[in-house]
Amino acid sequence: MKIKRKIKILSLVIILTLFLCSCQKNVHTELFEVRNEGIALNSDIKEQISGVKEKTETSTQKEKNKYEPLNYDEQKAIWFSYIDLAEFISGKSKSEFKESIGSALENVSSAGFNTVYVHVRAFEDAYYKSKLFPKTAYLGEKAYDPLKIIISKAHKLNLSVHAWINPFRCGTTETMESLSEKFIIKKWYDDAEKNGTYVVSVDDDKHMWLNPAYDDVRQLVTDGVTEIVENYKVDGIHFDDYFYPTTDKDFDKVAFEKSGKSDLAGWRIDNVNKMVRLVYNAIKKINKNVKFGISPQGNIENDYELQFADIKTWCSKDGYVDYITPQVYYGYSSTSPYLRTIKRWDSLKTNKNVKLVIGLAEYKVISEDEYIHNEGIIARQIKDAKELSNYGGIALYNYKNLFAAEDEYSDRVESEYTFITEELTE
Predict the structure, then answer these.
(1) Alpha helix (H) ranges present in 304-363?
(2) Which of 12, 256, 268, 342 lies at a C-alpha separation of 20 to 30 Å from 405?
């Protein structure tokens, strides 16, 4: 009997110990994954059990949100256009692309640049893994991810990477015909009501264009940006100066008539502003330190009258852009003189949270007389830009013309390169 009593007592002690241990574990449930085999618990029940609100972020989003983007107070940027990338990608294997783009990025870093604007979607074709847009034709049947490789290589060189997008420009009609029906732009193209409204052809332009008048179009642009920022460690998103492709009233006649508005220009400007705000907010929701910049035309009047781009608002108010990179592709004796133009932009930039980065046309040293016959002109323009009260950096267009010019221009470009690198590294 005594033995049986001892066994019972021992059993009770063991059970009590297990119970106490179980209670003790419940105090620290936030350190462990809540599991319930056989039953799917909703978030409210999980919160009641664990005392911790369930996190709904995916592992990719968690990693993304932990990423601290690499950006500089003074941007020293260079554009890598789709033309540049085509030469690195076309017919090249993954290893060949890695080698060529790696060398190109080393060239950029050695010259004194700290930022690259990389074309990742020029004609609604993706140079990255996308569920929303078809991959670029330059990849052919190859399945590697150019953007992922570029980011990896660039960050090892402390280069900031801004994904450059043309938000509304599509491919040609032939390109659109060949697209898979899984893509929304193809569905719009095939839709009798949306072809001509959402997706529009323009006279004297072989490309189709998305119409920013529609919520669905603005949302697609925003979703495309979200896809990149969520899945890649980009440091910024960069839009080019392709907004409205024409001033023709027929381009968006149907939408304008339905709007009930009377001021076509003002209505178009508002459409672009809605898209810019959507994109800005989407980026900041994912990672508030990823930058958003736009590169409008250098001619302010053209921005309003031809592109319907409200650069004055973008430069003065919060919630639109983090930086503005006007393409001041003018010489000192141009009809839009360089000095006068950059000073006008300097006066527009009244928001302390927006950086002014002056875009320069390095390619003109082989194509325009004032540039051809004035060695060091780009370096001089950089120096003058630094005198602006709101100076936030410079950007040169483009890689090929500075680092891979054709032999007949090599001496002139090499001379200009020397002056540029000296000014960048001062």
Answers:
(1) 311-316, 338-348
(2) 342
* Alpha-carbon torsion (51, 54, 59, 60), positive or negative: negative
Cis link prior to 398 (omega < 30° from 0)?
A: yes
pLDDT at 323 over 70: yes
| 173 Cβ neighbours under 8 A, 6+ residues apart | 201, 206, 208
Percent of the chain exceeding pLDDT 90 equals 83
Residue 6 C-alpha from the chain's centroid: 74
> Phi and psi of 161, rounded to 5°?
-115, 120
CA distance 211 to 68: 34
The full set of domains in the chain, from first to last, is: 2-50 (no CATH), 62-424 (3.20.20.80)
What does the alpha-carbon distance between residue 55 and residue 285 come to, in Å, rounded to a whole number?
A: 16
Q: What is the pTM of this model?
A: 0.85
Contact 238, 117 (CB under 8 A): yes
Q: SS3 string of 300-336?
A: HHHHHHHHCCCHHHHHHCCCCCCEECCECCCCCCCCC
* Mean pLDDT score of the chain: 88
